[in-house]
Amino acid sequence: PFPALLLLLKRGRFNRQAQPPRSEPRTGTGPCSADGGGLRAGAGGFRPSRVAVVAKTTRYEFEQQRYRYAGLSEDDLRQLLALKGSNYAGLLERHRIHTKNVEHVVDSLRNERIEVRLVKRREYNEETVRWADAVISAGGDGTMLLAASKVFDKFKPVIGVNTDPERSEGHLCLPVRYTHSFPEALQKLYRGEFRWQWRQRIRLYLEGTGINPVPVDLHEQQLSQEQHSRAHINERFQDQRSDISGPHLLPVRALNEVFIGESLSSRASYYEISVDDGPWEKQKSSGLNVCTGTGSKAWSYNINKVANQAVEEILNIVTNDYNDSLLYSPEEPKMFFSIREPIVNRVFSSSRQRGFSSKVCVRSRCWDACMVVDGGTSFEFNDGAIASILIDTEDALCTVLLEE
Amino acid sequence: PFPALLLLLKRGRFNRQAQPPRSEPRTGTGPCSADGGGLRAGAGGFRPSRVAVVAKTTRYEFEQQRYRYAGLSEDDLRQLLALKGSNYAGLLERHRIHTKNVEHVVDSLRNERIEVRLVKRREYNEETVRWADAVISAGGDGTMLLAASKVFDKFKPVIGVNTDPERSEGHLCLPVRYTHSFPEALQKLYRGEFRWQWRQRIRLYLEGTGINPVPVDLHEQQLSQEQHSRAHINERFQDQRSDISGPHLLPVRALNEVFIGESLSSRASYYEISVDDGPWEKQKSSGLNVCTGTGSKAWSYNINKVANQAVEEILNIVTNDYNDSLLYSPEEPKMFFSIREPIVNRVFSSSRQRGFSSKVCVRSRCWDACMVVDGGTSFEFNDGAIASILIDTEDALCTVLLEE
């Protein structure tokens, strides 16, 4: 009875609101497949009753927690940070800004009579997600990744608010203006003045020998590489049967990317890869990154983007080679012709703008033109005149080459 | 009798010297065709008895001559030049340097009991060339062009000495060190420590209606464009029969290039062109340049060389387009894989370093590797483990897009 009651209560909560649509298209513009299109909310808006706000742990809080057990005072902390080259005042200010922005979001929600649970990373779990109608991350892109990592329901909205625009790109978050005017965002949600966006994510299956499907959280533990390896060993799945069972669907979905490679950043990774059921290929590299559209702007972008410097250097080489190719020996009995600034349009064309030749004939259609030799001797060359231009080796100029 | 006597005397002058070879190859290295190869002078050197030295007119001399008729004093000249923005002291210094270098060449020749005729541009003519065994230009590349312009005998050596290395490239002249140690150059010529070089030149035939095969010298007259046009008209060939006769071989040979185009630099040139007896093509352009190997380093080079700026700009556009192409919509149910720094050698290959895919399978051959999701969750992935990576639209993350 309890689950049923919950369900009833839950339905009630969405009274007079549009749920994120399941399968039927709504009226409005945009793609209308529930498989990944965004739909205009249409006449109905979105009005959650319960919102979980996941707030990031600021650097200041992190350092505080780190040294808490050592019984340090604020002053001690400040000196310790200074020793590390960190700016205590800066950290405190960032913490203040973030905290203020989080309060703004929480207050805005509560002013609308929305029930709010404010959680930090450690407290955020799947129970929180089940409780909430929507999840808001208050932090940067990393906090958004965290918030998304516990959501597996494609109809549970996750919204990012960038609480420190100075320090985070926030490209997974709402536009920065809503950070300081969150009620405006809420009003738009209510009025349906928004579009749903489904960000595709990657799933992972693991099989084979000696596998270990238990995840290790890299953030919480701030592990060194060595600790990281040991963490995996400690977590190793006890059930031997995993060795012979089918592929395990791992309990994660990648919003940005999956990276595969040796933990030690200086070690080369050796593996075999098959793309789209193609042939297996043995490879050695610094690792493999497989990303989503969301992740195409993140690490993947930095892996693949063309660095101007490399290209400029290649370009200089090519340009210099080309320019060098324009030069040839004075003793070669061949000519090189160049058309300066050819006009190409419906009427005129220039099949070859430059090239070597043995003979060039020109028929003038000019008004007041010349044929000029070595910039010094000029012949009239107007409409009707025809010139034949060629090299006869009898005309060569004799000169000497002295060694340098 | 006089021409015969001259011939006899001329032959005698080459006693115990090697003439520029006519047809038989000499001993030594290099191509051995009289049609254009350079031959080592071999056992014999080159020892002329009569040398014509063509000296350039310096800018200082030019300005002096220009205002001579106005009866200006040196002081007047200096002020006039200053008004024009020219540096009188600089002009005088250049003139001094050039004059000193010319004297050095002339003295070096006379010290070897060589008969020297020193001529300026106006005095230099075909009679001078006939008289001389060799012609030396004392100036820059322009003076070399002038010296060559009156030489039509492929066995009459023309040698350039750069008398103002600061101001002239001198790429048609001897290496700069000989400017200040000309006796050294003479010794090398005597000892045969040099190579003959035949610089190919272009000849021109003119035919058609209304043609005018009389040349106009552009340097001597320092013509404005208007005066230039009138000069052609004044020189127009009176003989009407030229309109119906065959092609005229013009009395010039281009050492650098032939340029054909409208005299007015801002006017487009219209003509028809046929290259290597190919089809005629109507063209409109800023003119045609046909150069020799010698001229390939001159105007032609500047016409054709690739300017770094244009290419950089093209490059930026292409680079930006490429980088943009790395990004795609978060709502697209496709993955993009990237192999970081693939090692390619005899053993390993990487057929595709990046690309879109629906599915990626990886079999680990790693020692201590991980599969890391969104930089936050890590799975052991060592030798024997197999991962299948794909997108299922059921796993999408629901979020909202608010208008800016």
UniProtKB/TrEMBL annotation, chains A, B:
InterPro entries linked to this entry: ATP-NAD_kinase_N, ATP-NAD_kinase_PpnK-typ_C, NAD/diacylglycerol_kinase_sf, NADK, NADK2_mit
EC id: 2.7.1.23
Catalyzed reactions per annotation: NAD(+) + ATP = ADP + NADP(+) + H(+)
Alphabetical UniProt keywords: Acetylation, ATP-binding, Kinase, Mitochondrion, NAD, NADP, Nucleotide-binding, Phosphoprotein, Transferase, Transit peptide
Highest taxon, organism lineage: Eukaryota
Subcellular location: Mitochondrion
One annotated GO molecular function: ATP binding
GO cellular component: mitochondrial matrix
Kinase is among the record's keywords: yes
GO aspect biological process, one term: NADP+ biosynthetic process
Region (Disordered): 16-43
Alphabetical list of Pfam families matching this protein: NAD_kinase (PF01513)
Recorded family membership: Belongs to the NAD kinase family.
Function: Mitochondrial NAD(+) kinase that phosphorylates NAD(+) to yield NADP(+). Can use both ATP or inorganic polyphosphate as the phosphoryl donor.
Subunit and partners: Homodimer.
Protein name: NAD kinase 2, mitochondrial
Organism in which the protein naturally occurs: Anser brachyrhynchus
Gene: NADK2
